[in-house]
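Hey, can you fold this one?
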Amino acid sequence: MERGLYIAASGMLAELVRQNLIANDLANVTTPGYKPDRASQRSFADVLLVNSRSGQAVGPLGLGSVIAQRTTDFSPAPLRDTGEPLDFAIEGEGFFAVRTPQGVRYTRNGQFHRSAQGTLVDALGNAVLDRAGRPITVGADGRVDPRQLATYELAGARKVGDNYVVGRPVGAGASVRAGALEASGTNAARAMVDMIASLRAYEAAQRVITTIDQTLERTATQVAAMPGA
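Sure. Predicted structure:
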């Protein structure tokens, strides 16, 4: 009976992780260049139940579930024209390079600005780099030639927060379009459906725990009330 509690609890913990990922995706539904995360579950190794008298196999018993893998969907999202001269979008695969206090990071968010020093920076004030790894100077007309922006394809890309990605550059990325931004990769309708499904699974495991707890309580009460107990 106690094993049932652990199985249900493991399912609840896995769904909490899934809900956190979905909530983060929904929070970034309007963030340019944001890439959504996915979590896949697997079960712990099954235990084969056997009749202790006859040795006949009864069947497998699962021991709960766990998040097996967390992946990010880096597929390019649709581009939208903004008309802003310092908005840039990558027309295909690749990432912009940005110099941060932690080193070079990469991003698909091309919503850039002009710093007080006249250089092109992202929303956090980090310098956007050209193909030579140098900061880019914004022209007197407030524009930047999109061909100046370096883009890279990455191997082993993974998110590190603030819409940044780390990975190993393996070549040049696609061309850059000025006056446009890549939309968020989050599909709000799908994310809401996934959130509801995850919540229902969480509630089902919660009801299992409540049922087992009530059964154990009744069993303990009945045993205590038996004569000679």
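The chain has a mean pLDDT of 88. Let me know if you want another pass with a different chain boundary.
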